[in-house]
Every structure is written in C-alpha cells, then in structure tokens.
C-alpha cells in the first residue's frame, strides 16, 4: 500500500501484519517508542494487525470489570500501561498501533484521542454508517453500541497502543468482561450492519482515513 500525495510534509511507515501474538506486538511497540524517545527525528509508524484471543487491562484496573476469577480466564490476560479499562482482542478485530511524535502534529492528548476517533468515524462513513462519540467516554459507537475502543500511552510526546475496531470477530469473549468498564452500553461489530464485511477491506479504509486525518503520506517500508 502506498498512499501518495506530494503535498504532504510528513511520511509515516505502515506495517500490515496478520494475526500477531499480543506480547510480540507490545514488545515491538516498546522498541519503536524507545528508539524515538532517543531519536525524535525517526519516522512515524502505523501498525495494523489482529491478535489471537486475549484480554488486556491497564495497571490498577478494577477487578469488578472481570467476570472470572484471576487465573481462570479462558484466554491470556495482560496488565499493561495504557489508558482505558479492560478490553478483548481476537481475530476479526482490526487493531491499530500508531507510533507518532506528537510534536509534529499537536502536543495535546485530548486532540489526539479525538483524531483517532475521527479516523474510525470516517471509515464508517464510507459504508454509510454513522459513527458517533458519546462524551465523556472515548471510542466510537453505532446505534448506541460500542464498535471501537481506544487506549493510549504517551512518553515524551511519542505515542503507543491505539485503537481496536470490531469488524467481524467472535463476540463471545466480550461476555466475560465489562468492556472498557461501561456496563450500560453493549459492544457490537460492523458485521451486525454489514454481514459479509472483512478485516482486509476495512484495513485499507482505515489506512486511507488515517492518512487523511493526520495529513500524512503512508509508505510501506521495503521490509514488512
């Protein structure tokens, strides 16, 4: 994929990966972030992938959001450093990890969160679906159902973690948690509105929207 627009002043490398173990992707993000903290001139990165079934929770999250006892989860559980509460990842869910130097954009975390929401809302617009924000929460909703979760970490204005868009996953994993700590709003996937939708096609739409919202050129590195 090469989204070419010579008017862009910024380039961002895009890595398209398939189903990738969560810890492998986490360690990759940490390495990219560390490199950019040491050398802020390095290019930005967008990673798009899927994960095997896994639960992730921010450090210190409330255990009341888990509907199983510790050690009795059917899937791996990882406590990580990001905003947001417990969430579930699995194949059929498109996960995006932007590693961006916000000094190139705007040093404002609220702005950055709204931009990530805009990327996903614009993606849904392509399918004539009206994605919405529901303040004070972070994420994107369709007909009062949450279809996208967002959680980030920023170190010296370098971002990691990101967003997860439910395209066509097996939703059963969400039944064992209170997704994002929100008990009165259900989660759903785009397959509820578009039965034959695939991650592959949505991936390209998300990439196009990301390039537009952040006004960048996405470039595939020679080695993926």
TrEMBL record:
Q: What is this protein called?
A: Octanoyltransferase
User: Which CDD domains does this one have?
Assistant: LipB (cd16444)
User: Mind telling me which InterPro entries this protein's record contains?
Assistant: aa-tRNA-synth_II/BPL/LPL (IPR045864), BPL_LPL_catalytic (IPR004143), Octanoyltransferase (IPR000544), Octanoyltransferase_CS (IPR020605)
Q: Where does substrate bind?
A: 82-89, 149-151, 162-164
MF terms per GO, please? lipoyl(octanoyl) transferase activity
Which EC numbers does the record give?
Answer: 2.3.1.181
Q: Which residues form the active site?
A: 180 (acyl-thioester intermediate)
Q: Site (Lowers pKa of active site Cys): which residue positions?
A: 146
Task: Supply one GO BP term.
Answer: protein lipoylation
One GO term describing the cellular component: cytoplasm
Q: What additional remark is attached to this entry?
A: In the reaction, the free carboxyl group of octanoic acid is attached via an amide linkage to the epsilon-amino group of a specific lysine residue of lipoyl domains of lipoate-dependent enzymes.
Q: Which family does it belong to?
A: Belongs to the LipB family.
Q: Which key words are in the record?
A: Acyltransferase, Cytoplasm, Transferase
Enzyme class of the recorded protein, top EC level: transferase
Catalytic reaction equation(s): octanoyl-[ACP] + L-lysyl-[protein] = N(6)-octanoyl-L-lysyl-[protein] + holo-[ACP] + H(+)
First and last residue of the signal peptide: none
| Pfam families, per database record | LplA-B_cat
Q: Does the keyword S-adenosyl-L-methionine apply?
A: no
Q: Where in the cell is it found?
A: Cytoplasm
Q: What does this protein do?
A: Catalyzes the transfer of endogenously produced octanoic acid from octanoyl-acyl-carrier-protein onto the lipoyl domains of lipoate-dependent enzymes. Lipoyl-ACP can also act as a substrate although octanoyl-ACP is likely to be the physiological substrate.
Name where it mostly resides.
Answer: cytoplasm
| Record pathway | Protein modification; protein lipoylation via endogenous pathway; protein N(6)-(lipoyl)lysine from octanoyl-[acyl-carrier-protein]: step 1/2
């Amino acid at each position: 994929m090469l989204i070419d627009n010579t008017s862009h002043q910024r380039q961002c490398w895009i890595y398209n990966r398939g189903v990738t173990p969560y810890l492998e992707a986490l360690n990759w993000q940490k390495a990219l972030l560390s490199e950019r903290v040491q050398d802020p001139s390095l290019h930005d990165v967008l990673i798009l992938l899927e994960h095997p079934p896994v639960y992730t929770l921010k450090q210190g999250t409330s255990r009341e959001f888990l509907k199983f006892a510790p050690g009795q989860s059917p899937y791996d559980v990882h406590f990580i450093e990001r905003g947001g509460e417990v969430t579930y990842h699995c194949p059929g869910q498109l996960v995006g990890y932007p590693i961006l130097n916000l000094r190139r954009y705007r040093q404002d975390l609220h702005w950055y969160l709204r931009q990530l929401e805009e990327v996903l809302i614009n993606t849904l617009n392509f399918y004539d679906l009206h994605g919405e924000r529901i303040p004070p929460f972070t994420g994107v909703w369709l007909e009062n159902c949450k279809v996208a979760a967002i959680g980030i970490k920023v170190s010296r204005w370098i971002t990691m973690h990101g967003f997860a868009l439910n395209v066509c996953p097996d939703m059963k994993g969400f039944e064992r948690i209170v997704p994002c700590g929100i008990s009165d709003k259900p989660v759903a996937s785009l397959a509820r509105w578009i039965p034959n939708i695939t991650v592959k096609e949505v991936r390209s739409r998300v990439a196009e929207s990301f390039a537009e919202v952040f006004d960048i050129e996405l470039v595939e590195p020679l080695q993926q």
